[in-house]
Design brief:
By secondary structure, this protein is an alpha/beta fold. 61% of the residues lie in helices and 9% in strands.
């Protein structure tokens, strides 16, 4: 990473409205059958605004691959909804031209590589999305039945399925990692494909929150006050179901767990780490645009509570195995199965 990268990212974020407008003007000048036949000019400007913010996130940490992955995610969503993929290429090319025209010469190199790599990726075949639930296993079948009941608006039936399985010997941790969270991932996949509405996604998620509460109230032991963990989604991250599951797993393992939830201001995370004398801080980021907030939260915790260890996770870190080190965290958990062992190892070595 060059010294210019963070400055370029700041410029992109500060001037995002102007750059998006310039790119949108170029996009709307293309033949009607490409960009504007299916979306309005204002919709394309909103799309370009988000692309610029995603680009800024990749530039700041010199990780072009995270921008490429985001474009790939958008491409598969567009294709699954039957829209013309050429529109995405046109938007990227318009963005590239606008930034070449508008950015200072010394900053142009920082954005060329991620945009070109993203354009090149559009020539590859779209990898088919595979169903995430394996109905050939008992837990996979339970997860599928749970999801079906949720989508049929039978929250009581969905809840009973999980609670009855607990009575039948299902470990509480497995209820999270092998039933509830796989159902949530399948919901995300189906929404991405355009097969579920936002209302249906929310219905499943809110039912899952309620079931988690019941499991913890039923199964969690008295907390060990010498092991305090604070869990928070960083500023801008409205997603906290995965983080809630992470916090609950620590609680089920006997930790004294402070769950702060979604969209926590950076300064408040640091203050909580100090106030509660936390041994471990678990931070989550879902989108690439939240990596800046994640880095700031890590640094804030290190200053306010230098004895605490910071464990990070979330979709924003997937596919970039060393990014957590670059951001200053002490460890990274790629999934819930490794979460407890990683967190325990951190504080045992402190």
């Amino acid at each position: 990473m060059t010294d210019a990268n963070p400055l370029v990212a700041e410029i992109l974020e500060t001037s995002v409205d102007g750059y998006a407008s310039a790119a949108n003007t170029l996009l709307q000048q293309l033949p009607q059958e490409l960009p504007s036949s299916e979306r309005s000019a204002s919709q394309w400007k909103a799309h370009l605004t988000q692309q610029i913010l995603e680009l800024a996130a990749a530039v700041r940490i010199n990780q072009p691959s995270i921008f490429v992955r985001r474009v790939g995610w958008l491409r598969s969503a567009i294709a699954s909804r039957g829209e013309n993929e050429a529109q995405l290429r046109s938007a990227l090319e318009s963005l590239r031209t606008a930034l070449e025209q508008e950015l200072p010469d010394s900053f142009k190199a920082a954005v060329r590589t991620p945009i070109q790599l993203a354009l090149d990726s559009l020539d590859a075949e779209i990898e088919p999305q595979v169903q995430t639930l394996d109905a050939s296993t008992p837990n996979g079948m339970l997860s599928l039945r749970y999801l079906t009941a949720c989508l049929e608006a039978r929250a009581d039936a969905a809840t009973k399925l999980v609670l009855n399985a607990l009575d039948g010997g299902l470990a509480p941790q497995d209820a999270y990692t092998k039933v509830l969270l796989p159902a949530e991932r399948e919901v995300g996949r189906l929404w991405h494909l355009g097969d579920l509405s936002v209302a249906e996604e929310r219905l499943v998620t809110e039912t899952t929150r309620e079931v988690m509460t019941l499991i913890v109230n039923r199964c969690a032991p008295d907390p060990d006050r010498s092991r305090v963990v604070v869990a928070a989604s960083v500023a801008g991250n409205a997603h906290d179901v995965g983080l809630r599951a992470a916090a609950d797993l620590f609680k089920l393992a006997g930790w004294h767990t402070i769950f702060l939830g979604a969209n926590m201001p950076t300064a408040e995370i640091a203050e909580a780490a100090e106030a509660y004398e936390a041994k471990l801080i678990v931070l989550s980021a879902t989108l690439n645009t939240q990596l800046k907030a994640l880095g700031a939260a890590i640094q804030g915790v290190k200053l306010a509570a230098p004895a605490a260890k910071v464990l990070v996770g979330g979709l924003a870190l997937e596919g970039s195995p060393d990014l957590w080190k670059q951001l200053g965290a002490d460890a990274y958990a790629s999934d819930l199965d490794s979460l407890l062992s990683t967190g325990s190892a951190l504080i045992s070595g402190s």
